[in-house]
Write a structure and sequence with these properties.
single chain; 5 helices; 0% strand; mainly alpha; 95 residues
Amino acid sequence: MNLQRLQAAQMELAPGFAAGAAKTELYLLADYQAELGKRLPDTALAASYLALASAVPITTARYRQVNALLCVSTTPARARAIQAAAEAMRAQEAR
């Protein structure tokens, strides 16, 4: 069941990539999921997992969708920080 969640999140962050073709993203998403499962997740680490796994902009809506698919949540302030940092990292790498 969790593999299906990870694959669905991968399709949200990297549409067009064949599910299972890029296994690294699944590991990154699993690590992201585990990080948000911690009592005090590391914002920068969580953001880096998302940034590395994403081929598209990490909008607020996309971030919420990925969290819903992975059945994870965090405080609103931490969520905003993770989303903003992840998008900044992703955009920098895309240059």
